[in-house]
Amino acid sequence: MKRSLSDANRVISAPRPMRAQLDQLLRKVEARGVRSATRVCHVTAFSGGVDSSLVAALVHRVFPTTSAACLGVSAAVPAAQIEQARDVASFIGVPLWEFPTKEGEMKEYVENVGKSCYYCKTTLYSTINQVADHAVHVLQPTTDQKDQLVLFNGTNADDKLDPTRLGLVAATEFDVASPLDELTKTDVRQMAKYLGLPNWNAAASPCLRSRLQFGVEATQEHLGRVERAEAFVRSIIDLPKSSNMRVRYLAGNRAAVGMWSLAVPGDHHHSLTSRAELDADMLPAAQKVEDAVREELLSIGKCTGWLRSNIKSLTMILQVSAPLFCDLSNPEV
Predict the structure, then answer these.
(1) Is residue 201 helix, strand or coil?
(2) Whether residues 136 and 236 fall in one domain
(3) Cα–Cα distance for residue pair 242/261, rounded to 1 Å
(4) Residue range 53-97, pLDDT digits in tens
(5) What residue stretches are annotated with the NAD/GMP synthase domain (predicted)?
(6) Tell me, what CATH number does 23's domain have?
(7) Domain range spanning residue 112?
(8) Which pTM value belongs to this model?
């Protein structure tokens, strides 16, 4: 039988400090809310990741009739992440609003020179405001009350230490509430587990644009290549959902330590390389399927590749030539 958040709440048994921490978080959410609201006006910027899932659960608990989760859909969001978001929202019981975002049409975002995160979040928060306003007119066309829209996000304490997260600037500009801003990522996972969220231990999944080295344009084509490459690596190595894995899209022939540089003569993507990083505990499994990966890559047109482990950093690197990022369904590419 399918479980829900209400079911999980009934079976939770955790130390008192967790209960106290939960109460504190609920108070933070309530303090930013609008108690007299007659419409949906407590909205979480939702990705299906553990951070925003925890926030959506907290907001829905405090404001069960006036909350919603908003999922922005674009080429930077993997299809698997969208499915996870739908599953988690259903588990929580919070209404999920999905809508397309148009950061991919912004030159400043596509250039990917260091500020794409800002333009992405600016577009996201602006669109959420528009979606929420439209929903009010559709769902409650006769209401005269204009309650203030309160936006929440899943920013945690570790995020605030990352200078590349310029989306935090956008959050400040839109007055977005961050109830998890004093919790580390570990704290967030512990609280999500306490609440019984199904994705409490899911691998971190930042947007696909974050896989691109600065200077590699954040086009739909490039983002799609990364998504397909990551799906391929996960399937061939049979990675569990809790294991982190990234395929980095690098510009030029510059490569990380331990990487081999490959170029395919005559291919206009020959200067692009990629790197996959996995959790250290996946190394043995990856090494066992080295031949299988090579054979699979060779079967995809002109693709070649191999696996090698970097003992010092305890990471596994999958080095592939650029054609892996071509249309995998076309062996002539």
Answers:
(1) coil
(2) no
(3) 30
(4) 999 999 999 999 999 999 999 999 999 999 999 999 999 999 999
(5) 41-199
(6) 3.40.50.620
(7) 5-194
(8) 0.76
